[in-house]
Design goal:
heterodimer, A: mainly alpha, extended, B: mainly alpha, 79% helix, 0% strand
């Protein structure tokens, strides 16, 4: 009789090893499979988090490792939460976050709506629209810097073409009032395709039969939009807002490349400020407290948002 | 009104989660508003209380 490969492998296993394996319960085997992942999660996520929380109560400076670490209680938190400059970065972040999300959702949804109507060469246009998303933020930051140049920038000349103002009369990244909008425009240009793709997935998941039934009931296009399209795309849209919200809360690369946080600190977002505290001023304890504040804020917001998302999905 | 109070006292998830969500939302608004520094100062404690409350009450029965 020809033995199968499994049988041969089983016979080839040394008896002490085989006995040990036979003695393991299902639960133990499950733990053996899960343990490496659990260990990695603890080492890479949980341990640094706990370490950061611990450091946030000290005056530790990573560039002076031999200095004694002093436990200073809540003083780092107190300093951050009474600092008008940090408050200003929170406002800059809020401005960036709110406007990028509003613009990306509106333009992304409108583009998805257009692409979904299946016109000639719609596939080609989908590819063209999605291109910015595939670029590196460093590249996008770099070429938007050129686009915003007052003398030679295409953006200034386009604005001049439509409004008649002198293109050299304003500087998008050099003006304290315009710089916050410059980063909003660049981020919107780059990430609207992402929202569009998610909305497109939502639009394409709506069965045509629902629209046919609405047509039979003589519902107008406007009513179909508000009673069929919007409610059915809403979970997708909320997911897109969640992703973009979390991403933009920690926006760093694009803004650093574009404005470097200036002029002054009008475009200094929290992540840029945090990086400066941690790796330019080397106030590790202070930066840790800053990171904990941002973490708790994003975690809290994401928790209530996911709850809202689940409620929308249940409807 | 008394129904809501009863639900709070019976430690039901719904109203407690709602309270935690409101605390987080108010805390975030306090953190990012441009009007009063005092509100900004107290924002983190409000968010922290809301978040910890949310984590705890999400284990309450429905």
């Amino acid at each position: 009789m020809v033995k199968s490969t499994i049988t041969r492998a089983a016979h080839a296993t040394p008896e002490p090893v085989a006995a040990r394996v036979r003695g393991l319960s299902d639960r133990a085997i499950a733990w053996i499979f899960v343990a490496p992942t659990l260990f990695l999660l603890l080492a890479v996520n949980i341990f640094p988090l706990i370490w950061t929380i611990r450091l946030s109560f000290t005056n530790y400076r990573v560039n002076r490792p031999n200095r004694d670490i002093e436990w200073i209680g809540l003083r780092n938190y107190e300093r951050i939460l009474t600092d008008a400059d940090v408050w200003q970065t929170m406002q800059a972040t809020a401005h960036f976050l709110i406007w990028t999300i509003v613009l990306q959702v509106l333009i992304g949804f409108a583009l998805a709506w257009l692409i979904n109507s299946k016109f000639r060469s719609s596939n080609f246009w989908t590819t063209v629209i999605v291109l910015p998303m595939m670029l590196s933020p460093a590249v996008v930051g770099n070429f938007w810097t050129f686009l915003y140049q007052p003398q030679i920038g295409l953006f200034n000349h386009a604005v001049a073409f439509f409004t008649g103002v002198d293109p050299a009369s304003f500087s998008m990244i050099g003006d304290v009032h315009l710089a916050p909008w410059a980063i909003v425009i660049a981020d919107t240009w780059m990430w609207t395709p992402f929202v569009m793709l998610i909305c497109l997935a939502g639009l394409r998941s709506i069965p045509a039969s629902i629209y046919e039934a609405a047509e039979c009931d003589r519902a107008s296009k406007w009513r179909q939009f508000w009673t069929i399209t919007v409610p059915m795309v809403l979970p997708f849209l909320m997911l897109a807002v969640l992703f973009r919200g979390i991403e933009n809360f920690k926006m760093f690369d694009l803004v650093v490349q574009l404005t470097g946080g200036g002029p002054g600190n009008t475009t200094t977002l929290t992540s840029i400020d945090l990086k400066r505290e941690a790796f330019e001023r080397w106030r590790t304890g202070y930066a840790s407290a800053y990171a904990v504040i941002l973490f708790v804020t994003v975690f809290g917001l994401a928790s209530i948002y996911v709850k809202a998302l689940n409620k929308v999905k249940e409807r | 009104m008394s129904e809501i109070l009863k639900a709070f006292l019976r430690l039901r998830r719904g109203p407690w989660e709602m309270l935690a969500s409101i605390l987080i939302a108010v805390g975030v608004v306090m953190l990012m508003q441009p009007f009063f520094l005092a509100l900004y100062t107290w924002s983190f404690i409000v968010i922290l209380v809301g978040t910890v409350m949310f984590l705890i009450v999400s284990h309450f029965p429905e």
